[in-house]
């Protein structure tokens, strides 16, 4: 891990848990907290400058994803931090902005999740989907589209894959750490 890609903002440096992999091309700035076994892949940009970013254990943030937050204001006194739970897989080139994700979620490649959206546990979001501001996605479903719509309940195999995907990425990041 290069110290040039982990940067302070206003004196606040990202807090990094144990056994994490952060690619040297990823940039983490400011008030960011990573739990254990997190992987941050090439070209991820995470900016915890005007609010906080929290990423749970065994979560993977894949190549080219942008993570950002919404500043506090008189209209929105708390702003919108970015909170990502545990065992979450965020696919390549996603945009997560000031939203909340529970545990065991798969965010398909190129998906966009906007300010104030809440994604409950055990959700699949299809590639290229757009989750509009302040939308709540209920647990146990596949969501697809622009704007996103509830497609159907998750199959048992899909629900099992949510956890397995996180395990796969923990194994992969361990290979990178031991390389």
Automatic annotation (TrEMBL):
Domain of life of the source: Bacteria
Pfam families: Hexapep
Acyltransferase recorded as keyword: no
Keywords of this entry: Transferase
Transmembrane spans: none
Gene3D superfamilies from the UniProt entry: Hexapeptide repeat proteins
GO molecular function (one): transferase activity
InterPro entries for this protein: Hexapep (IPR001451), LbH_gamma_CA-like (IPR047324), Transf_Hexapept/Carb_Anhydrase (IPR050484), Trimer_LpxA-like_sf (IPR011004)
PANTHER family noted in UniProt: DYNACTIN SUBUNIT P25 (PTHR13061), PROTEIN YRDA (PTHR13061:SF56)
Name of the protein in its database record: Bacterial transferase hexapeptide domain protein
Species in which this protein is naturally found: Colwellia psychrerythraea (strain 34H / ATCC BAA-681) (Vibrio psychroerythus)
């Amino acid at each position: 891990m290069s110290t040039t890609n982990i940067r302070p903002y206003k004196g606040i440096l990202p807090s990094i848990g144990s056994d994490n992999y952060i690619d040297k091309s990823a940039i983490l700035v400011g008030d960011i907290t990573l739990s254990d076994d997190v992987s941050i892949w090439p070209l991820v940009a995470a900016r915890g400058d005007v609010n906080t970013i929290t990423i749970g254990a065994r979560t993977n943030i894949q190549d080219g994803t942008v993570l950002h937050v919404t500043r506090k204001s008189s209209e929105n006194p708390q702003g919108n931090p970015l909170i990502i739970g545990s065992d979450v897989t965020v696919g390549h080139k996603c945009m997560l902005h000031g939203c909340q994700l529970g545990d065991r979620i798969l965010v398909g490649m190129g998906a966009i999740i906007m300010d104030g959206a809440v994604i409950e546990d055990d959700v699949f979001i299809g590639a290229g989907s757009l989750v509009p501001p302040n939308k709540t996605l209920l647990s146990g479903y596949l969501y697809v589209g622009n704007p996103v719509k509830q497609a159907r309940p998750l199959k048992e195999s899909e629900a099992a894959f949510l956890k397995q995907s996180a395990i796969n990425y923990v194994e992969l990041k361990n290979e990178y750490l031991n390389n």
